[in-house]
Amino acid sequence: DIQLGRQRGWYSNVGETAPDALAAAVPVRIGGEVYGLGFVGPEYRVRPRLDRSVKALLHAAADISAKTSI
Questions:
Q1: What's the predicted TM-score (pTM) here?
Q2: What pLDDT is recorded for position 70?
């Protein structure tokens, strides 16, 4: 899963931490340090919107990183 996440640029957790939950996260660089930005929700609600939500998450992470780079 870690290798897949690195390849696609985002990571997921489907029911691993909480049953019926789906989470996605991306790394965010702020001032030379790496943080995480993500979302979680019921799988039945997140799954149909996953592609769109991940694109928004990647965009937000890039925007944050660009605005906070030194």
A1: 0.85
A2: 60
